[in-house]
């Protein structure tokens, strides 16, 4: 330790900070990867039971080792790079898809003090990172040099950009109520039990946010980006092995991220719904788990939207709803009932 | 021990600045327009990093959110769909050079004169004092924008609104042959509009082996 400090000289505090931050990043990303792996199993099991099947039950007790078997299989598969593709961008695509999905976790608080970067503009940072996620899809679709992949990329890009607006607007409502962009302070603004959570005064925004989140993550029923019946598998049709798996991981990591954000901003984060039970990280886990279950439930229940219907829903239904509700909240805050919105 | 008297922040700044310059140069030198757009994205990212060093986190994040997340996506969207003939683009290079070179040179000289050391040297621009940890750049900007600069801010938003309306008015044409459904009509459809229930008398089918005989009789 001593000679390390001497080696780095005046840079030693900065080096220490960097190493310490890296350790924290690993502590966040490693459980996240585990959660992603077991979310795939949960999805197959839940949809299986909803369709009166059993789902995977061969590998390990209750199919519990299935994600590991899947991961190993994908690792050992060959990554085929199409001859006519743009090699650099073809390999850059999956990286750009998964990097923002993980980078956004930097500002996500897990408890009062458990946060990697307690920045004041946390909400903006999250919005910026989720908006960057579209590059992975576009670049993968274009670099594949295949018309199915390209069509999938175009659909997805238009869809993500459209729903981002509705999503951003519904978060404006949250920041009006909380008076801050810091995620930890947003959660603390909801303290005082179930009836102080923001999903009640901002109910329309909560619904719009969650549906937009499903569309942002390209999940069913908004999964036209990979619509199997029309464009085989969309933007990742040319990918195989681990390159495909990275897209898969990014999709599930994004699902967990948007569920986490919904839990933090509308459902009181780690706060307990009743005041006589203490607040805990477990509450946050339970809320995120419930929202993730909704994702799976949607997939098992709804038929896929047609593309023009998706666009209509985003632009002509969600954006007007959010604008009207933001104006309504702003107006109510000037009345004696303002306490309802804080 | 320090490298050439550089602090940690300086090293970060020079690394970001080097990437920014490389990316900016590549935007204009690379041949593939998709690469050029992606280099521009890289330039925005590194510029945002430099702004973060200046404690301007709101501007840095907004740069990524607006330019990288929205503007450049639409740029890429268009550039990827175009089938650009690169040779044709470079055809007029030598003809345009005699005019382009002096114009470019003039612009470079102007920029050096304005942004040069004479106006922006260490003696002219003092480093802003470091802010306390609880200082919120976002809140400060919001306060100034809605008090001191309210009128310019509202004017800018009106101009933007006019631009949006104009862009839609110029490009929106409804094609006659395009078919679309009106969802509000679709949900109002009742059973009676689509389905007609007819009352028919039951017909008893005649047994198979006698069918030939019956048809003969009928004919």
Describe this entry's structure for a reader.
The complex is a heterodimer of chains A (342) and B (219). Helix content of chain A is 65%, strand content 0%. The model of chain A has no long low-confidence stretch (mean pLDDT 84). Chain A has 342 residues and is mainly α. Chain B is mostly helical. Chain B is built from eleven helices and no strands. Chain B has helices at 8-29, 33-53, 57-81, 86-90, 93-115, 117-120, 137-146, 150-171, 183-187, 191-194, 211-218. Chain A binds chain B through residues 7-11, 14, 89, 119-121, 124-125, 127-128, 131-132, 134-135, 138-139, 142, 150, 153-154, 157-158, 161, 164, 181, 308-309, 312, and chain B through 1-2, 7-8, 34, 38, 41, 57-58, 61-62, 64-65, 68-70, 73-74, 76-77, 80-81, 136-139, 180, 183.
Quick structural gist:
The complex is a heterodimer of chains A (342) and B (219). With 342 residues, chain A is mainly alpha-helical.
How is this fold's topology laid out?
The complex is a heterodimer of chains A (342) and B (219).
Chain A: H1 2-8, H2 12-50, H3 66-76, H4 87-103, H5 122-132, H6 134-143, H7 147-178, H8 183-188, H9 203-216, H10 228-231, H11 241-266, H12 281-301, H13 307-332
Chain B: H1 8-29, H2 33-53, H3 57-81, H4 86-90, H5 93-115, H6 117-120, H7 137-146, H8 150-171, H9 183-187, H10 191-194, H11 211-218
Helix pairs in contact in B: 1-2, 2-3
């Amino acid at each position: 330790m001593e000679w390390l400090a001497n080696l780095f000289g005046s840079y030693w505090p900065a080096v220490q900070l960097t190493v310490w931050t890296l350790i924290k990043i690993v502590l966040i990303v490693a459980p996240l990867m585990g959660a992603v792996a077991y979310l795939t199993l949960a999805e197959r099991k839940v949809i299986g039971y909803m369709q009166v099947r059993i789902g995977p039950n061969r590998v390990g007790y209750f199919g519990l080792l299935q994600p590991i078997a899947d991961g190993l299989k994908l690792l050992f598969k060959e990554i085929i790079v199409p001859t006519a593709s743009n090699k650099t961008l073809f390999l850059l695509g999956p990286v750009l898809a998964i990097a923002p999905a993980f980078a956004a976790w930097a500002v996500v608080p897990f408890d009062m003090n458990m946060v990697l970067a307690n920045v004041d503009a946390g909400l903006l940072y999250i919005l910026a990172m989720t908006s960057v996620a579209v590059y992975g899809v576009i670049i993968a679709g274009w670099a594949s040099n295949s018309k199915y992949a390209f069509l999938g990329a175009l659909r997805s890009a238009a869809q993500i950009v459209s729903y981002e607006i509705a999503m951003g607007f519904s978060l404006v409502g949250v920041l009006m109520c909380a008076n801050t962009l810091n995620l930890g302070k947003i959660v603390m603004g909801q303290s005082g039990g179930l009836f102080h959570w923001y999903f009640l005064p901002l109910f329309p925004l909560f619904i719009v946010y969650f549906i937009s989140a499903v569309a942002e993550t390209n999940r069913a029923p908004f999964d036209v980006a990979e619509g199997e019946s029309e464009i085989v598998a969309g933007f990742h049709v040319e990918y195989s092995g681990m390159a495909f798996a990275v897209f898969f991981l990014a999709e599930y990591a994004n699902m967990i991220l948007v569920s986490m954000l919904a839990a933090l901003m509308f459902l009181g984060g780690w706060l307990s719904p009743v005041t006589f039970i203490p607040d805990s990280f477990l509450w946050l886990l339970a809320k995120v788990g419930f929202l993730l279950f909704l994702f799976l439930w949607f997939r098992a229940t709804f038929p896929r939207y047609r593309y023009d219907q998706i666009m209509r829903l985003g632009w002509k239904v969600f954006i007007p709803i959010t604008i009207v509700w933001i104006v309504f909240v702003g107006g109510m805050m000037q009345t004696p009932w303002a306490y309802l919105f804080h | 021990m320090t490298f050439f008297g550089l602090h940690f922040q300086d090293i970060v700044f020079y690394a970001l600045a080097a990437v920014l310059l490389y990316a900016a140069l590549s935007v204009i030198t690379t041949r593939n327009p998709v690469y050029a757009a992606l280099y521009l994205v890289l330039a925005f990212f590194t510029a945002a990093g430099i702004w973060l060093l200046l404690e301007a986190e709101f501007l840095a994040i907004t740069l990524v959110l607006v330019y990288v997340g929205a503007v450049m996506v639409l740029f890429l969207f268009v550039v990827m769909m175009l089938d650009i003939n690169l040779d044709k683009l470079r055809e007029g290079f030598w003809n345009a050079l005699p005019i382009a070179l002096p114009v470019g040179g003039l612009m470079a000289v102007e920029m050096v004169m304005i942004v040069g050391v004479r106006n922006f040297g260490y003696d002219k621009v003092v480093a802003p004092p470091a802010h306390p940890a609880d200082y919120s750049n976002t809140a400060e900007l919001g306060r100034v924008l809605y008090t001191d600069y309210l009128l310019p801010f509202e004017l800018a938003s009106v101009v933007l609104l006019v631009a949006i309306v104009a862009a839609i008015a110029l490009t929106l044409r409804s094609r006659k042959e395009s078919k679309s459904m009106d969802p509000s009509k679709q949900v109002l459809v009742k059973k009676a509009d689509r389905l007609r229930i007819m009352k028919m008398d039951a017909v008893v089918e005649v047994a198979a082996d006698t069918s030939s005989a019956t048809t003969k009789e009928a004919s």
